[in-house]
Specification:
The complex is a heterodimer of chains A (292) and B (380).
Chain A lengths: L9 E5 L4 H13 L2 E6 L7 E2 L2 E4 L2 H8 L4 E4 L6 H10 L4 E4 L6 H13 L3 E3 L5 E4 L3 E4 L8 E8 L3 H12 L4 E6 L10 H10 L5 E7 L4 H10 L7 E6 L23 H10 L4 E2 L5 H10 L1
Helix pairs in contact in A: 3-4, 7-8
Chain B lengths: L4 H10 L7 E4 L2 H11 L2 E5 L12 E4 L2 H12 L2 E2 L2 E2 L3 E5 L3 E12 L4 E7 L6 H7 L5 E5 L8 H10 L6 H17 L2 E12 L4 E3 L3 E4 L8 H4 L8 H8 L3 E4 L4 E5 L2 H13 L6 E4 L6 H12 L6 E8 L4 H15 L5 E7 L2 H10 L4 E2 L2 H18 L1
Parallel strand pairs in B: 14-16, 16-17, 17-18
Antiparallel strand pairs in B: 1-6, 2-3, 2-6, 4-5, 7-8, 7-10, 8-9, 10-11, 10-12, 13-15
Chain lengths: 292, 380
């Protein structure tokens, strides 16, 4: 089980011939992900780690049969085009690893994807892993153990750090979803949590937020109104971030009076979600909410 | 990247949005000359920090001589740490009412939104905090863009006469085109003045362009980095994300979230981070060396904390970079390393050989760095 992707998901890698695309195709294959094709305009007919490469998704589907999901490694200036191609060919899950895509492009393709019911993960994200089944992304798989904790995060390495703490304390992960560090994302915390609610394997959720925007506040408000819930524990990065400065991620910026740490923490705690002070506290808080 | 007020107004004017007559002056003589042409003027310090008005950066001069004196004063001053190098000298406008109008991203709605308020002249942060109900929002579909009902809506909210509809429509349509043409994430007029004689004039203007889109805006790309400190600029030139803070523990990490979490943990355990430096993914030993040199030569840094969760980033490359930096810099600031993940053992071996050790746990490394910073601080 788990959400979004599993061992049956048929995957195409867009931008498979690039440095990152090719490197991570190898790691995803080793993890057991069913990668049936890759695309790279002009490089059709070649192979990357045994995966056939096509000029387009149209050709890939024509020869390999239907695909369910794509992972996008295409550079920022060409990524929107690749995403439209994937949406128009009926893919249901599109994971955009690419960082640095212009905001107005993101607004357009994110709305396009949502209006067609496509689950777009990212952009600027580490991807999705359903532990032991499939990895569509760049997470170091060795830190993950299979279990019943769902993870949803705006960050990459911080997710690995917190998952390692969970693993150390004996907690495994069902699915981990990196929703991405940009101001506009396809799936948000609410979307992913509502999927975890439907997943019988997931019993609790770890939410990893950061300063900037109001995604955490919106989640808190949604969560506080739910009749049926699974417990949530949160960590929010950026307590020491000064206002008006972009903290690495395009979305991690306190601006227009929105998005500081204390507002997020207050909203989450007000909704009954404990917030950890350090990554190492996350499993301790999880233990407490699971006892209740 | 923020544009200066005078740059934002040049753009506005090009799109037909009325702004006060005025010119940029970088010396008291120039300010006096402009004032001679315009009569009573407002002198506005061109800085990118907020809160300029409260800090005395906007002054009125009744005569060219007064303009000279004020310009001399302002041009030798700093506003909240930012040196004033230019002034915008503008005609004084008789203000009837001060309105607020901007176009920006609404993250929750995932689209642009016009923010419209009758209470202009107050910073939007303050307005949003104190009178959120006074801000009216009109959402813009990315495919449709601006359309005229939005101007009628603004007219109603701003309580303006029907005769101004064409003007409001022109301004709002232009704001959307500026957002698209310049890849702007904010186009703001605050205040947008209704003058005593019933015209609309943008008294202040602010445009923020999307850093991610600079590759297709070469004319803006050239301006990138001009508002950064030397360390910030050098770090950005090397391809790192970097933000200056005021503590004494230098921080080098990989990944934005982990870097922030490391800074936050320093604060939580009682220390103070000096900076945010994110190496990004897959840093080579050369890049690590440059990052470490930058931090080791930083005057405020007493101890350097390197926290790496190796994935794409390899611990052996990190270790080599650190060792090389210490050799090259020659100063002996203490370094605390925490590394984990890809090629961890090789990384540890390199550090041990050089007489350094590496922690595996983040909390332990953070505590150790704070302890060292305290020892140095009390010793010296």
């Amino acid at each position: 089980m788990g959400i979004l992707v599993n061992s049956l998901t048929r995957v195409v890698v867009q931008g498979i011939t690039g440095r990152e695309g090719s490197f991570h195709t190898k790691l995803m294959l080793e993890y057991g992900t069913r990668i049936v094709a890759g695309t790279s305009p002009g490089k059709g007919g070649t192979y990357v780690h045994g995966v056939p490469v096509y000029n387009s998704i149209y050709e890939a589907v024509g020869e390999q049969g239907p695909v369910d999901a794509s992972v996008v490694f295409v550079p920022a200036r060409f990524a929107p085009d690749a995403i439209y191609e994937a949406i128009d060919h009926g893919l249901r899950v599109i994971v955009v690893i690419t960082e640095g895509i212009p905001l107005h492009d993101e607004v357009r393709f994110v709305n396009y994807a949502r209006s067609r019911g496509v689950a777009l993960v990212g952009p600027n994200c580490p991807g999705v892993i359903t532990v032991g089944e499939a990895k569509l992304g760049i997470m170091p798989s060795h830190v993950f153990r299979r279990g019943y904790v769902g993870v949803v995060s705006r960050s990459g390495t911080l997710t690995y750090e917190i998952v390692r703490e969970l693993t150390k304390r004996g907690y495994g992960v069902s699915t981990a979803v990196g929703i991405g560090g940009d101001p506009v994302t396809g799936l948000d915390f609410v979307d992913v949590y509502s999927m975890f609610l439907q997943d019988p394997e997931t019993r609790a959720v770890v939410l990893i937020g950061e300063i900037g925007g109001d995604a955490e506040e919106r989640f808190a408000s949604y969560y506080s109104k739910l009749a049926q819930r699974k417990p949530v524990v949160a960590y929010v990065a950026g307590r020491t971030a000064p206002p008006g400065k972009r903290m690495g991620h395009a979305g991690a910026i306190i601006s227009m009076g929105l998005g500081d740490y204390s507002s997020k923490r207050k909203a989450l705690e007000g909704a009954g979600i404990p917030v950890a002070e350090t990554p190492s506290q996350v499993p301790l808080l999880l233990e407490k909410v699971l006892e209740r | 990247m923020k544009l200066y007020e005078y740059e934002s107004k040049e753009i506005a004017l090009r799109y037909g949005i009325p702004v006060p007559r005025g010119r940029v002056a970088s010396s008291p003589d120039e300010a006096q000359q402009v004032a001679g042409e315009l009569g009573a003027v407002v002198l506005k310090a061109q800085v990118l920090v907020g809160g300029r008005g409260l800090a005395g950066g906007v002054r009125i001069a009744e005569s060219p001589e007064e303009a000279y004196a004020i310009a001399r004063d302002l041009l030798s001053s700093s506003i909240r740490g930012e040196r004033v190098e230019r002034l915008l000298v503008e005609e004084r406008v008789c203000i009837g009412r001060e309105l607020y109008l901007s176009l920006t991203l609404d993250r929750a709605a995932r689209r642009l939104v016009y923010l419209i308020s009758e209470m202009g002249g107050v910073e939007i942060e303050e307005l949003a905090r104190r009178y959120p109900e006074k801000i009216h929002r009109v959402y813009v579909d990315p495919v449709v863009g601006y359309t005229d009902y939005m101007a009628r809506e603004a007219l109603r909210v701003l309580n303006l006469p029907w005769s101004l509809l064409p003007e409001v429509a022109k301004i709002m349509g232009a704001m959307f085109r500026i957002a698209m043409d310049y890849d702007a994430e904010l186009v703001e007029f605050n205040p947008l003045a209704l003058t005593c004689d019933g015209r609309l004039v943008a008294l202040d203007a602010k445009v923020i362009v999307d850093d991610n889109a600079l590759f297709r805006r070469p004319e803006l790309q050239r301006l990138y980095g001009r508002d950064m400190s030397d360390y910030e600029r050098r770090a950005r030139e090397l391809g790192f994300s970097y933000v200056e803070l005021d503590g004494d523990i230098g921080v080098i990490c990989n990944g934005a979230g982990l870097t922030m979490a490391t800074m936050d943990s320093i604060l939580y355990f009682g220390g103070r981070p000096a900076n945010f430096l994110d190496l990004g993914g897959g840093a080579s030993s050369e890049r690590v060396r440059e990052a470490a040199k930058l931090m080791l030569t930083h005057p405020r840094v007493r101890v350097l904390l390197v926290n790496i969760f190796g994935g794409i980033t390899r611990c052996d490359e990190v270790a080599r970079g650190i060792v090389e930096a210490t050799k090259e810099v020659g100063v002996s600031k203490p370094i605390v390393v925490r590394m984990l993940g890809t090629n961890e053992e090789e990384g540890r071996r390199i550090l041990t050989e050089y007489g350094m050790q590496a922690f595996s746990e983040m909390d332990e490394a953070v505590r150790r760095a704070i302890e060292i910073a305290r020892q140095i601080s009390s010793a010296g």
